[in-house]
Amino acid sequence: MANIPEELIYSKDHEWVQVEGEIATIGITDYAQESLGDVVFVELPNEGDNFNAHDAFGSVESVKAVSEIFTPVGGEVVGTNEDLNDTPEVVNDDPYGDAWMVKVKMNNPGELDGLLSAEEYEEYLKSEED
User: What is the pLDDT of residue 17?
Assistant: First the structure.
């Protein structure tokens, strides 16, 4: 089973969110990186870009496929993980740590209510496999 840290919240699009005040740090889950295979390129937005919840904000390219990444919450991008430009394989090695993708200043923290706890995300993954 995929690694699902308890302290994070999750989307059904397989992104994780860590919240500190009004800033949401977003990345893709262990399940997502496993499904993709070896990541070879990550495309991220620019600081200052604005997105609504569920908008595609970038993509992850692996040897198998290209997958869009969606923001679980709307807001302004206030940070991007530039390191992924040079070392996209970190997404496979450390999806919840060094491979965070963007930091978003949330427009509406209430959007977090629609996301899943670690336990709910694990149940969602089990239902997807059936």
Answer: 98
